């Protein structure tokens, strides 16, 4: 049975890569821009029920899908490296601490989940999942499950399984649904607009 060939990601379709140094520079720019977006999304709090919502997991999953699994995971690792050296890139920093001590605190599992979830959503996007609404919904749901599962697992070592679930998973059901719905609107729509622009451009030539 033949393996499905990887399809271009959204970013590859918008900004095709070159080779050698040009490609490396492109990757560096995209990864750094991704960490800026992650930092902004971590600091942005939106009033929501039952707890305030940040847009960080939305940014993680959409970046993974848009960049592909390799660059998506690399961007998350760069973000974690920025946090590890003490830059206040995480939610609650510097107020609740910075650097490695913060990363080993209650949110450590979620941070690890960012890497795994971005890689998963990027891999699925390379199979074309981000081009239809229902597959996008499934990809985003799986990505959120990975983040919440790793977050719960780490928090359980600190507070016990039941308390970890009550504090680290249950309050985020509604936000997960909202951010999944937003991604379902954003990614397939972006592909639709891009394909329309390509078709219009081809007709004009």
Top keywords for this entry?
Arp2/3 complex 21 kDa subunit ARPC3; two-stranded antiparallel ribbon; 71% helix; globular; single chain; mainly alpha; 205 residues
- Number of strand elements: 2
Count the DSSP helices. 9
- The residue ranges in which pLDDT falls below 50 over 5 or more consecutive positions are none
Strand content: under 5%
| Strand line-up in the sheet with most strands | 1-2
Write the layout of secondary structure elements.
Elements (H helix, E strand, L loop, with lengths): L9 H5 L6 H23 L1 E2 L6 E2 L1 H12 L1 H16 L14 H5 L4 H18 L7 H27 L1 H8 L4 H32 L1
Antiparallel strand pairs: 1-2
Helix pairs in contact: 2-3, 2-4, 3-4, 3-6, 3-7, 3-9, 4-6, 6-7, 7-8, 7-9
If you had to describe this structure to a student in words, what would you say it looks like?
With about 200 residues, this protein is mostly helical. The chain has one domain: Arp2/3 complex 21 kDa subunit ARPC3 (Orthogonal Bundle), CATH 1.10.1760.20. Helix content is about 70%, strand content about 0%. It has helices at about 10-15, 20-45, 55-65, 70-85, 100-105, 110-125, 135-160, 160-170, 175-205; strands at about 45, 55. β1 (about 45) and β2 (about 55) form a beta hairpin. α3 packs across α7 (about 135-160) and α7 packs antiparallel against α9. The longest helix is centred in the C-terminal third of the chain and has 32 residues, at about 175-205. The protein starts with 9 loop residues before the first helix and ends with a helix. The mean pLDDT is about 90.
Compose a concise summary of this entry:
The chain has helices spanning 10-14, 21-43, 56-67, 69-84, 99-103, 108-125, 133-159, 161-168, 173-204, and strands at residues 45-46, 53-54. With 205 residues, the chain is an all-alpha fold. The protein has a two-stranded antiparallel ribbon with strand order 1-2.
